[in-house]
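Take just one protein record:
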Amino acid sequence: MSIHGVYPPPDYIHLVGTVSLLIATKIHEPSSLSTNVVEQQILRGKYKEEEIIKMEEIICKSLNFEFGHPTEYTCIGMYMELMHKGTETREIYEQVLKNAHSYRLA
C-alpha cells in the first residue's frame, strides 16, 4: 500500500488502519472517538497525537477529501436533531435561524 507513491513501514499499517476507521466514524457516526482515546486505548501510546493527526491529513488528502463550511443540509440535520430536544434549546436554535443572514462564517 502506498500513499502518494510512498510506502510506509510495516508497523505503520496499524496506524493507517486505525486512522482510516477513525475517519470513517467521523463521517458515518453521530459521535466520534477523540484522538486522545485513539492514542491511549487503541494504539496504546505507540504513536503520538501529532502522528495520528498527520496520518489523518495524509489519508484525507490522498482521497481528495474536501472540507468546507457546513451546507444547508448540515444545518437542516442539526435543526431536526434539536427538534427532538427540549423547548429551550429549540427556541434558541430557531432564533439563530431567524438571524442567520447576519452571521458570517469565518
Observations:
- DSSP finds five helices and no strands in the chain.
- Residues 12-28 form the longest helix (17 residues).
- Residues 12-62 form one domain.
